[in-house]
Design a protein that fits this description.
Layout lengths: L1 H9 L9 H33 L2 H27 L14 H29 L8 H28 L2 H26 L7 H29 L5 H12 L6 E9 L5 E10 L4 H19 L2 E9 L4 H14 L5 E10 L5 E9 L7 H18 L3 E9 L3
Parallel strand pairs: 2-3, 5-6
Antiparallel strand pairs: 1-2, 4-5
Membrane topology: Multi-pass membrane protein
Protein name: Cation diffusion facilitator family transporter
GO molecular function, one term: monoatomic cation transmembrane transporter activity
Length: 392
């Protein structure tokens, strides 16, 4: 496989994809290959477009030129993202990769807008297109190059989990379809005098615009704070629960500061009657070992769980029955009964799904309904309920 050969030849220590320098080498290789291929395709299609007088082919040529410029920005983005942390950016500059992908997306949309205008002008003022066999064959060859470039970008994008390179792969695959449409219009020009070139040019331009819009949406998500990868969430939870004396986890929050720059915090439930130094050592080991395995920075907060008594067990069973009446509640944690005598505090947190996130008034109403239901059976408890939201 030629893609694998390029990686083996140009990227040192290419299997160590968690290393930022190796990752940067992958990004640089992807960018350079993109510049070379897209520049060649621009020259080829621009020449053919001018030769046969096709606005659709010329539009496709400039789309390839914008892709070459995008590759330059991708390389710059990887270089900037690889800068070490500083006083102003203590978590590093990893999000530059997302920003570079966003710039690329806007460039793609700009090209699309320009060629919508040009194609409409061609419809209003049609020109004759002359079909020639050699330019037709050259266009077919250009499609095969673009298809390979899409596979190559997907290969290294998956290898290093790069949103910028995955976006480039998607963009290149979209170009395969738009270029195929252009070639079809060029072939049809041999059989009809209709100004099909202008209409195909509009379709190509709209496809370019759609690709740009899709890229904007995909690259904005990590910048705005998208939900974390479910596989990462599952791995974190499983690894933490594998440690002795940790019986549960909740309030997991993951912050993404760029590929390889992830910070996670979580609450771990531990027995309340265990030696504090012993469990502190377990937590320290978990933080260090899980951080290393998953290439992130993990912070664990210890939540002591009350020793289970008949009172706690029976009360919790009833509270869970009450909570099941509310579909928005996913779980409860930190359940405890505090105090002596006739009046005690019943304290617990509930986790509400973000899909059913409540306004402040609704949240207050939800708490009041739960308290009312509990008071009907356990009037001697003063309920203290905290609402948490599911961030995963």
């Amino acid at each position: 496989m030629f893609s694998n050969f390029l990686v083996q030849f140009f990227v040192k220590d290419n299997e160590n994809v968690k290393n930022n320098k190796v990752r940067n080498s992958y990004g640089t290789l992807g960018g350079i290959v993109g510049i070379i291929i897209n520049s060649m395709l621009f020259i080829l299609k621009f020449f053919v477009g001018m030769l046969v007088g096709s606005i659709a082919i010329t539009a496709d040529a400039f789309n390839n030129l914008s892709d070459a410029a995008s590759s330059v920005i991708t390389i710059a983005g990887f270089k900037m993202a690889n800068k070490p942390p500083d006083a102003e950016h203590p978590f590093g500059h990893g999000r530059f990769e997302y920003i570079s992908a966003l710039i690329v997306a806007f460039l793609v949309m700009f090209v699309g807008i320009q060629f919508v205008k040009s194609s409409v002008q061609r419809i209003l003022n049609p020109e004759t297109i002359t079909f020639e066999l050699i330019p037709f064959i050259l266009l077919l060859i250009s499609i095969s190059f673009k298809f390979w470039l899409s596979l190559f970008n997907k290969f290294i994008g998956n290898k290093i989990n790069s949103s910028a390179l995955k976006a480039s792969a998607t963009d290149a695959l979209g170009d395969v379809f738009t270029s195929s449409t252009v070639v079809l219009s060029f072939l049809l020009a041999k059989f009809t005098t209709l100004p099909i070139d202008g209409y195909i040019g509009v379709l190509v331009a709209l496809a370019i615009l759609y690709a740009g819009f899709s890229l904007v949406r995909e690259t904005l998500n990590p910048l705005l704070g998208e939900a974390p990868d479910p596989v990462l969430v599952s791995s974190l939870q499983e690894m933490i629960l594998s440690y002795d004396m940790i019986s549960g986890v909740h309030d997991l929050i993951i912050h993404n500061y760029g590929p390889g720059r992830v910070i996670a915090s979580v609450h771990a439930e531990i027995p309340s009657d265990i030696d504090i130094m012993e469990i502190h050592n377990v937590i320290d080991n978990a933080e260090r070992e899980v951080s290393k395995k998953l290439n992130l920075h993990l912070v664990i907060h210890m939540d002591p769980i009350c020793i289970v008594t008949d009172e706690i067990r029976e009360t919790r069973d009833y509270v869970e029955t009450v909570l099941r009446k509310h579909s928005c509640i996913k779980s409860l944690h930190d359940f405890r009964i505090v105090g002596d005598g006739d009046i005690k505090n019943l304290i617990f947190d509930i986790v509400v799904s973000n899909k059913d996130s409540k306004s402040e008034l609704s949240e207050e109403k939800l708490i009041n309904e739960i308290k009312t239901s509990i008071k009907e059976v356990h009037n001697h408890y003063n309920c203290v309920i905290t609402v948490d939201y599911d961030y995963i």
